[in-house]
Amino acid sequence: MDKRQQVIFKIMIMILLILISIIATRGAINIPVDKFGSVLIKSPDIPEVWLQVFWQIRFPKIVAAFLAGASLSVCGLLMQTFFRNPLADPFVLGVHSGSSLGVALWIMGTSYIPFLMNESIQNLGMVFFAILGGVITLFLLLLLSKQIPGRSVLLVMGLVFGHFSSGIINILISVSDANKIKNFLLWTLGSFQRVSDDRLLIFSIVIIIGLMVSFIFKKDLNVMVLGERYSKSLGLSINRTKYFLICITAILSGVVTAFCGPIVFIGIITPHLFRKIIQSSDHTILLPGVILLGGIIALFAELISSFHDGMIIPVNAVLGLLGVPVIIAFLWKNRKGEMG
Amino acid sequence: MKPIVTAKKLSIGYCGQGFENYLVLKDLNFEIFQGDMICLMGHNGCGKTTLLRTLAGLIDSISGKIEIDDKNIDVYTAKELAQIVSVVLTERLDLSGLKVRDVVALGRYPYTNIWGKLGPSDLQAIDRAISLVEMNDIQHKQFSMLSDGQKQKALLARALAQDTAIIYFDEPTTYLDIPGRMEILKVMKRIALEKNKAIIFSSHDWHLVLSMTNWIWIINEAGKLVRGVPEDLILNGEFEKSFMRENFVFDRGSGSFIEAVVMDKNIMLIGDDDIAVYWTRHALMKNGIGVINNSDNVSEAINIIIRENSIKWVVRVNGTEQDFNSIESLLVYLKSWP
To answer: Fewer beta carbons below 10 Å: N end or C end of chain A?
Structure first.
């Protein structure tokens, strides 16, 4: 890493810490910044309510937002490198749609089976079906992208999958009862606040392991920018790497989708922005970079979504509003090159 | 000397999933030695790229054997093969965010551990590769900013950093301007000689290849591999046979195809300067003016006279003479003849 890149990392860490401290201390109940340290170490001489607000609401929210942003960004990076398509991400390629379909099937399909209504079974089922939906979509994509070459085909496929799954979801919605529909629709709005206490541990463990495993592939990812043929000529076992990457992507994005809903845009924006800022294609730098930046963007969205007391704008709405200008800017910048 | 690559009864093509095998070339037998620089020629679609990819282990052969260093290519693991064989392909790469040196460093993939950390020997190999293609000055430039010729050299350097005995190079000269073509072939030739590597490349640049390589393999119209020294292939007509097209004739004197123009006039050409005579003849033939050597049945003749570094063309018709100082003006005059 050169000097400039080190500075960028330092700035990102600073922004991250600032965002965390704002979210941790501000809100319906403000915690004075100078007392924040005492809250962290759970010192006994501070108001109980501060401890509760921080440890039970804000801390899980911060961790969930950071990890969700980080893992979606890593998914986006892995898919952009793997498919060699700058517009690839779990949302665009329909992995989210697959996960949504899985979750919809689970939420609305289990309403007739009483013994599955237990809350922890519901949660577990949601995670499982979100991951399953993601894996199936990715395998289909992979299969089709092998048979039909061309970069735009992939994006079209993602779109088609999206319509396909929303078709089924619409049918499910039209036959389900209002309560189930509401549950599902709330889930699609996206939120980092639903990952509370008991769920946080599983969520964090799975994502942290997933992120760590993705680092094992940084060397392979670096070579993959040369394309499949060069990678093979350099001794990379394409098939093995392919399946590992699909599993990591599906698990990371599936878990986030299950817990936080289908979070949009982070996966596509972050790798893109970070590459532009850092001017490197080295995944040794890109991986930690998109983890930081993805976390920052998610926390920023979270901050804005609950900026106004009592009124919560859905995270996906915030991200949509943020994401559109970035994508347009990208297309604008590349308007001379062939797109797809 | 033992060959580094041997092919026996090799058939190549594509084994499609669900399709019939698509056979491109069959029954190929050849040997490649270290230090060879071989140019693979043939018309578009004859199977040059398929052959190079098969030899590089990127696609499976349909039948037959490829042996590298006396061992069948299938015996090698992907990593082992990557340490003996490297390729430069025709695909144009969009490598934004990578510096030249980063691209070259990717060639060390088969040698580094899982974290891809470059050790002293890796750095040395990268430095050596960069200086072999003479890119030291621009090694920190962004790859995407390079010219096509520089990109080819950088990709060659990447293959060199891979430190393999064999390099397959698919169409190194395509997309390049004339100096770029000469440059890349010069570098390749030097590498083959100095580093004793076997370089097999495909090209359509017949004239450059003729002047720079000692071996040409032609995949001819019948799908046979004809191998030889380029000059032999001219003299024995193999080259002519493989590339002949209607309305063209092969000029063995220059080693090139020229359009078959019906000669509506004949003229005699005399001059001491071989080069001036050659190019004058070249221009006349192109314009349908035949050049003959004996003066029996023509009354017209062109004399080329060289005086103080300037060339003068003197046309003698029926005893009268007329001077010209360029081929252009000479042609204008000759065309005005009835």
So the answer is: C
Q: How many CB atoms lie within 10 A of CB B5?
A: 23
As given in the structure block, the two tokens for residue A21 are 């401290």
Measure in Å the smallest separation between the Cα of A235 and chain B Cα atoms. Answer: 4
In three-state secondary structure terms, B65 is strand
CA distance B109 to chain A (A): 6
Where are any strands of DSSP class E within B19-117? 22-32, 37-42, 63-68, 71-72, 85-88
Q: What residues contact residue A21 under an 8 Å CB cut-off, 6+ apart?
A: A33, A36
Residue B11 gets the label, from left (phi > 0), alpha (psi -120 to 50) or beta, of beta
Instruction: Encode B31-60: b = buried (16+ Cβ within 10 Å), e = exposed.
Output: ebebbbbbbbbbeeebbbbbbbbbbbbbbe
pTM recorded for the entire structure = 0.82
Which residues 6+ apart lie within 8 Å of A109 measured at CB?
A172
pLDDT tens digit sequence for B223-268: 889 999 999 998 988 888 888 888 888 888 778 888 887 777 788 8
Residue window 89-128, chain B: list those with CB within 8 Å of chain A.
89, 91, 93-98, 102, 106-107, 109-110, 112, 114-116
**Mind giving me the DSSP string for A132-160?**
HHHHHHHHHHHHHHHHS-SHHHHHHHHHH
Q: How far apart are CA B31 and CA B17, in angstroms?
A: 31
Q: Which residue is listed with tokens 């030249």?
A: B100
